[in-house]
Design a protein that fits this description.
alpha+beta, 11 helices, 477 residues, six-stranded antiparallel sheet, Jelly Rolls, five-stranded mixed beta barrel, Spore Coat Polysaccharide Biosynthesis Protein SpsA, Chain A, 23% helix, single chain
């Protein structure tokens, strides 16, 4: 049995302003109607002899993971929640330990949630082809056959082919190498012995854990403690915070793959792309006759080889070439296509200034739906709120703000103090400071309201929760 392990902990800062900390690139529909996470899950669902996936993600993203997988008909076996990020090696370690809980020792197929693979049939065939190597106790890394002298990827140098392999292309790993300069990358391409490091792996759970115990025993101990002290909450497994936070932070490559003598590389030529930058997204998106990629309301004049994404308004370009222009409700990026790797420096500056644009969008998703912060001044804020059918905000109160709700569409069931009543379109109500309240959508269509907040403090941490059907406590988003 193959157990897919989907790693969904990335932040995708080089795809800012679309990808942000609270809504990173794996949750975005960047190449088609489905998100990258959904595409990853659907891709492996078509494999034979495969179980439901284990998903590992940031605890703050748990509801997005659950909802996006539910919407494509996939029920994960478990969603493991990381209280803090510790890179890929600890994430895979807890997945391997969890997979052994019932006494099993499955083969794990480790996949990042945010990659693109265009040749899905070829990918699935390669998984089945190399599975016997995992069964034999080898640690498989998938090396992407390079198509250009890429300086943004690490490389794997292939050693001798495995004599017992049916496919002679499966080779021992001679060494891993860091991201090269252009001249070195050209040499790698010409040699035919180097592959891009995809970050995808396959191995038995016991094999990986045995090698981790050899090379990073403190990491394995911390992961065991975090899983042993974990607690279950519906579909989520919460790793114990203190133990996991004490775990050394490292990647699979550094912790195990570069040190083990069991590593082999399986070459892949399946249209892979890690979508790690706007240039990478450019490579996997169809262009028009002028070489442009245009999304949203866009008008161009004498514009060539340019990417324009207009999320909320008209964007027009005149006489420009080789640009990336990305418009969102609260930020606009304009960059030369050859310099998009430097977008992460913009994010670093936003973080250093504690600006919210590095972390959140204006539109914020919650387990019950979403809200859009339309306007805000010192003592008032206006939000447009959407609550899904059957969903409900928590029973809560605020110390510093009052709220006025106006129903735009749908039906609202309002709990306010000791009262419970219904509101329909164009009706409204007022929630005074300090009064317990809850808003529920009892209908079959989305409930949309306009909320006007007023008071001396309007931040989201002025929420005291008394009940929450999603299990959130005070301070949780």
């Amino acid at each position: 049995m193959i157990v897919p392990v989907i790693l969904s902990g990335g932040s995708g800062t080089r795809l800012w302003p679309l990808s942000r900390e609270t809504y990173p690139k794996q949750f975005l529909p960047l190449v088609d109607a489905q998100t990258l996470l959904q595409n990853t899950a659907v891709r492996i669902a078509g494999l034979t002899d495969v179980s439901a996936p284990l998903v590992i993600c940031n605890a703050d993203h748990r509801f997005m993971v659950a909802e996006q997988l539910r919407s494509v008909g996939i029920q994960p076996a478990t969603v493991l929640l990381e209280p803090v990020g510790r890179n890929t090696a600890p994430a895979v370690a807890v997945a391997a330990l969890h997979a052994q809980r019932e006494g099993d020792d499955p083969i794990l197929l480790v996949l990042p949630a945010d990659h693109v693979i265009s040749d899905v049939a070829g990918f699935r065939a390669a998984i089945h082809q190399v599975a016997p190597q995992a069964e034999a106790g080898r640690l498989i890394t998938f090396g992407i056959v390079p198509t250009a002298p890429e300086t943004g990827y690490g490389y794997i140098k292939a050693g001798a082919p495995l004599e017992e392999s049916v496919e002679s292309t499966v080779c021992a790993v001679e060494r891993f190498v860091e991201k090269p300069d252009l001249a070195t990358a050209r040499g790698y391409l010409e040699s035919g012995r180097y592959y891009w490091n995809s970050g995808m792996f396959m191995f038995r759970a016991s094999t990986f854990l045995a090698e981790l115990e050899r090379f990073a025993p403190a990491m394995l101990t911390a992961c065991r403690q975090a899983l042993t002290a974990s607690h279950l909450d519906t579909d989520f497994c919460w790793l114990e915070r203190q133990a996991f936070a004490a775990c050394p932070k490292d990647s699979i490559d550094y912790a195990v793959m570069e040190k083990t003598d069991r590593a082999v590389v399986m070459p892949l030529a399946v249209g892979w792309n890690d979508v790690g930058s706007w240039a990478a997204l450019w490579d996997v998106t169809p262009h028009d006759t002028d070489g442009n990629i245009l999304r949203g309301d866009v008008i161009t004049v004498e514009t060539h080889d340019t990417y324009v994404d207009a999320a909320t308004r008209l964007v027009a370009t005149v006489g420009v070439d080789h640009l990336v222009v990305v418009e969102t409700p609260d930020a606009v990026l304009v960059a030369h296509k050859d310099r998009v790797q430097e977008v992460k420096e913009i994010v670093a500056r936003l973080q250093a200034s504690a600006r919210p644009e590095s972390r959140t969008h204006r539109k914020v998703y919650r387990p019950w739906g979403c809200y859009d912060a339309i306007d805000m001044e010192a003592r008032f804020q206006v939000k447009r709120i959407m609550i899904r059918p059957g969903a409900s905000i928590s029973l809560q109160m605020h110390h510093h703000r009052a709220e006025h709700w106006v129903v735009v569409s749908g039906t609202a069931r309002v709990a306010r103090g000791d009262e419970v009543f219904l509101l329909t379109e164009n009706q409204s109500t007022y929630i005074p400071v300090g009064v317990q309240h809850r808003l529920t959508n009892p209908g079959k269509i989305p409930l949309e309201i306009i909320e006007i907040q007023s008071g001396s403090y309007l931040a989201e941490d002025d929420i005291v929760r008394f009940e929450d059907i999603y299990g959130r406590g005070n301070g949780e988003e």
